[in-house]
Amino acid sequence: MTASLIDGKAHAAKLRADVRHQATRLLQEYGLQPGLAIVLVGSDPASDVYVRNKVRQAAEAGLASLEHRLPTETSEAELLALIEQLNGDPAVHGILVQLPLPAHINESKVIHAIAPSKDVDGFHPINVGQLSAGQETLIPCTPYGVLLLLRNTLPSLEGLHAVIVGRSNIVGKPMAQLLLSEHCTVTLTHSRTRNLANVVRGADIVIAAVGKPRLVRGDWIKPGACVIDVGINRVVENGEPYLVGDVAFNEVVEIAGAITPVPGGVGPMTIACLLRNTLIAACGSRGITLSNAL
Ligand SMILES: NC(=O)C1=CN([C@@H]2O[C@H](COP(=O)(O)OP(=O)(O)OC[C@H]3O[C@@H](n4cnc5c(N)ncnc54)[C@H](OP(=O)(O)O)[C@@H]3O)[C@@H](O)[C@H]2O)C=CC1
Ligand SMILES: Nc1nc(=O)c2c([nH]1)NC[C@@H]1CN(c3ccc(C(=O)N[C@@H](CCC(=O)O)C(=O)O)cc3)C=[N+]21
């Protein structure tokens, strides 16, 4: 059996078109244009690509995007002052500080400084707590995108065993919370997990968010399982640069029921969800309920 391909690029294009449609109505009916501020400290080339993509796609979806590029030697106090200014700016509804930050800046302090209502990454402890309590909140973009792909691929998530490989605050942990809310049975695995391959063999849904090229092999996969590859790894093979996931795609595609490619899987959904979160935050700032008012 060959797995069906989950086309993240196409799903993301639909989601962006929906954001654009709703942003147009917001502007017409309420005179409100959602604004996203993206802060990049330093000049990591990969971050540079993401930030450029985010700014372009925000503009295409009818959002105002404001880019703040700061030099690597920016002090923590300077960054916190910028966040304070953005928190108080009524034209800014979403703030994203690109991670990782340079080593001399305390990431946790920065995340705490962002107003929870503008935290479109969903990383602030208030939003993390709300997500874990099953309350409505701004959901981290990558797990949000993965959830939308799963809902589109599987008839129901209820009662399925989801194994997540990776327990980071930005992907693995919030993914576990979201899937619990969907009534999956969730196993969160990490670098100390014993017999990882055996744990993954029990999964109806596998989510790989590790940062290790092709860690998840074909013989780890239950036939017919749904495999979501979050990993983005830059490798050079035969002298050529490639983007590969955390899943050995060529092996797993023969066993799984459905699989996301890299590139063109989760990545484009992450950006589309960031735009959607900005729209949600803008509506929230005026007490407009997205589903009711639009
Ligand atoms: N497509 C997208 O939109 C996005 C993609 N990414 C990509 O997803 C991947 C993961 O990112 P992120 O969550 O930030 O990564 P982190 O480095 O923060 O976390 C990696 C996790 O993987 C675990 N891990 C490491 N090695 C192994 C192993 N051999 N077996 C099992 N678990 C292991 C770690 O375990 P431990 O906790 O024990 O150290 C940790 O929990 C990266 O490739 C990143 O580029 C990230 C964000 C968005
Ligand atoms: N505050 C913060 N929020 C983030 O959400 C965040 C972050 N920091 N730091 C880095 C990670 C990584 N991330 C990606 C987003 C899009 C693609 C993406 O669009 N990928 C394309 C390929 C892009 C390419 O060719 O490089 C794809 O998979 O098709 C990838 C990775 C968001 N992150």
UniProtKB/TrEMBL annotation:
One of its GO terms (molecular function) is methenyltetrahydrofolate cyclohydrolase activity. Residues 140-282 form the Tetrahydrofolate dehydrogenase/cyclohydrolase NAD(P)-binding domain. Pathway: One-carbon metabolism; tetrahydrofolate interconversion. SUPFAM superfamilies: Aminoacid dehydrogenase-like, N-terminal domain, NAD(P)-binding Rossmann-fold domains. Residues 6-121 form the Tetrahydrofolate dehydrogenase/cyclohydrolase catalytic domain. It catalyses: (6R)-5,10-methylene-5,6,7,8-tetrahydrofolate + NADP(+) = (6R)-5,10-methenyltetrahydrofolate + NADPH; (6R)-5,10-methenyltetrahydrofolate + H2O = (6R)-10-formyltetrahydrofolate + H(+). Keywords: Amino-acid biosynthesis, Histidine biosynthesis, Hydrolase, Methionine biosynthesis, Multifunctional enzyme, NADP, One-carbon metabolism, Oxidoreductase, Purine biosynthesis. The keyword Nucleotide-binding does not apply. The keyword Cell inner membrane does not apply. NADP(+) binds at residues 166-168, 232. Belongs to the tetrahydrofolate dehydrogenase/cyclohydrolase family. Homodimer. Catalyzes the oxidation of 5,10-methylenetetrahydrofolate to 5,10-methenyltetrahydrofolate and then the hydrolysis of 5,10-methenyltetrahydrofolate to 10-formyltetrahydrofolate. This is Bifunctional protein FolD. It comes from Zestomonas insulae. The lineage of its organism: Bacteria, Pseudomonadati, Pseudomonadota, Gammaproteobacteria, Pseudomonadales. The gene is folD.
